[in-house]
Amino acid sequence: MPHSPTPAPQTSPAPKTLRLKMAQWQGGNLPAYHFGAELLAWLAPPSDTPMVEVPVDPPSADPLPLEDGILAKSRVLAQARSARVLIDAHAPDRLVVFGGDCGVDLAPFAYLNEKYEGDLAILWVDSHPDIMTPAEFERAHAMVLGALMGQGDQDLADIAARKVEPAQVVYAGMDEMSPLERERLTDWGIPFIGPDQLAETSAPVLDWLRQSGKKHVAIHLDLDVLDPKGFRSLLFNKPGSDNAEWADTPQGRMSLAQVVRLLRDVAGEVEIVGLGIAEHLPWDVMNLRDMLAELPLLSD
Amino acid sequence: MPHSPTPAPQTSPAPKTLRLKMAQWQGGNLPAYHFGAELLAWLAPPSDTPMVEVPVDPPSADPLPLEDGILAKSRVLAQARSARVLIDAHAPDRLVVFGGDCGVDLAPFAYLNEKYEGDLAILWVDSHPDIMTPAEFERAHAMVLGALMGQGDQDLADIAARKVEPAQVVYAGMDEMSPLERERLTDWGIPFIGPDQLAETSAPVLDWLRQSGKKHVAIHLDLDVLDPKGFRSLLFNKPGSDNAEWADTPQGRMSLAQVVRLLRDVAGEVEIVGLGIAEHLPWDVMNLRDMLAELPLLSD
Questions:
Q1: Among A102, B193, B247, B294, which one is least packed by beta carbons within 10 Å?
Q2: What is the pLDDT of residue B13?
Q3: pLDDT by residue (tens digit) across A216-250?
Q4: Which residues form the signal peptide (chains A, B) (predicted)?
């Protein structure tokens, strides 16, 4: 019997992942977000994946200018555009983003929605819906998902050439919100799956993903989805403050283990092509760093 | 008038400082001390000062052997000897130590006491006196100052060729202790200056230093001297634990700012030649690192 030539195995090239460090702090009007990103990137498991850094104005205690109702709008826009230039230069299949305030996911998720031509679910793991507009709030980090959907400030929205449709979006870990936010989500038909529903199972999210029919998912992980009693490196936990400013702001109720389980379950269901981690505020670490800088023998 | 040759200016060479990273964890029987040292060293202000690292067995969850009443005594001894070899090789005038458990200061302070021939005050900034012996406790990190004074386990004590005299020692930030500890300090005549006495002024410590007549000081800074409500990266604050184990253990009552002020005031009074920082337990950071290692796209 004559040998038939063995066909070359059908292999697709390994997907190309890019790590993006984006120490944006102006969107939350808090210099500490900058260091949060630095530490987060330092903690990431070592990898051969390339890491690029979006240039960000260094932290400053000077008041940020209010531009069209948004603090430091021109900086936030410029940083999102820089992020997009870096992403386009690498043209990755997958993106990991180390933030920074929540706004760091604007350009990356816009890129992914274009790349996958809308075949992208967006899983927003957060205690807050991030659909504010300048009419209600002045910090861009609370506007990012709205901007991806074409809402609110038009310049921010224009970062996303292809608008995210409400049917692409689901929230996880969130069930408290303002009446206005609730009304908007209801109007748009975007579901939210609360922490109690996810305490023992990831099924509600997996069911939604299945019903969405999307083959790819980008995950926004705002660390404030975590219970601040178990994870203290959050906005609401600043030591030496009564944190009265946040008394009416919903806080997270998920554990680290629940978040890990949720994301791993999602990875078993659809292809994760984006993961942005945001709002890391390691107060102790910053305070310790500042103390070391003042100590004799170290500051000499 | 003929020129007389200009004499060379009388300059003494700049003192030589060495930074020592010692991620010892066995002395506190807690692998987390290892990462605490890594992060502490990462946070230190950048410097041209050389940094050397004492080889330490990597953290492990396996039970440590009890040897002569001390957990992992042979490892703790071997690590102290390694530290001494490294220090002797550099022969510095000043030492900064990044720990690790409190035991990291055994070899460095022994070296300094020999180098300055006893013209050395020891300022122990801590919530605990660290003068236990194997008869009462099995963790070496609670024995280090006792060992420097020749007390307790003889092998640990032998790390210090020149014994520290009780008259060289003062505590700061500590006023609660067990009856046994109080009896020992009274017998030895070692004063302790509590956090309330130091809340507004460093004077009690400065007065003691002046009366001691010592021209050099080595400072042991156990971070547990800090109030755990303001600085959470401490033994007593493990998230998800009721920390019942520490219910009867004295906890710190100083603020970061008070510690900085105290050490800077001391630097104005005598020459600081040693600074060891110990017992850093950044729970959130470790938990976040462990979470990142489990997440899709990061663990792939």
A1: B247
A2: 83
A3: 999 999 999 999 999 999 999 999 888 888 888 99
A4: none
**Domain residue limits at B264:** 17-292
Optimal mutation site among B21, B285, B299, interface A, most CBs of chain A within 10 A: B285
- With the CA atoms of A265, A269, A273 and A275 taken in that order, what torsion angle do they form, in degrees rounded to the nearest 10? -20
Please state the domain count of chain A: 1
Candidate from B230, B287, B292 with C-beta closest to A231: B287
Residue of B42, B259, B296 with shortest CB distance to A264: B296
Distance CA A206, CA B152 (A): 60
pLDDT tens per residue, range A10-56:
677 889 999 999 999 999 999 999 999 999 999 999 999 999 999 99
Beta partners for A193? A172
Integer Cα distance of A56 and A258 in angstroms: 32
Q: Does B264 contact chain A (CB < 8 Å)?
A: yes
Nearest Cα of chain A lies from the Cα of B297 at a distance, in angstroms, of 7
B274 CB-near residues (< 8 Å, 6+ apart)? B94, B95, B96, B97, B105, B108, B109, B112, B217, B218, B219
Place of tokens 């929205």: A157
Per-residue pLDDT, A242: 85
- Does A42 touch chain B if contact means CB atoms closer than 8 Å? yes
Size of interface A-B (CB pairs under 8 A): 121
Tell me if residue A240 falls in helix, strand or coil.
Answer: coil
User: What value of ipTM does the predicted structure carry?
Assistant: 0.94
Query: Do residues A275 and B298 touch, judged by C-beta distance below 8 A?
Result: yes
Question: Is B11 domain-assigned?
Answer: no
- What's the average pLDDT block by block, 10 residues per block, for chain B (300 residues)? 57 90 97 98 96 96 97 98 98 98 98 98 98 97 98 98 98 96 97 98 98 98 96 93 88 97 98 98 98 93
DSSP secondary structure letter of residue A254: B
Structure tokens at A249: 């702001």
Residues of chain A contacting B261 with CB distance shorter than 8 Å: none
- Token pair belonging to B287: 């938990």
Q: Measured between CB atoms, does B51 come within 8 Å of chain A?
A: no
Measured between beta carbons, the chain B residues lying within 8 angstroms of A45 are 292-293, 298-299
Residue B4 confidence (pLDDT):
56
Q: Is A159 left (phi over 0), alpha (psi -120 to 50) or beta?
A: alpha
Note whether residue B223 is domain-resident.
Answer: yes
- Is the Cβ–Cβ distance between A138 and A55 less than 8 Å? no
Positions in chain A short of pLDDT 70 = 1-10
Q: Which amino acid is at A72?
A: A
Residue A259 within any structural domain of the chain: yes
CATH number, domain with residue B44:
3.40.800.10
Give the per-residue pLDDT at B56.
97
Three-state secondary-structure class, residue A33: helix
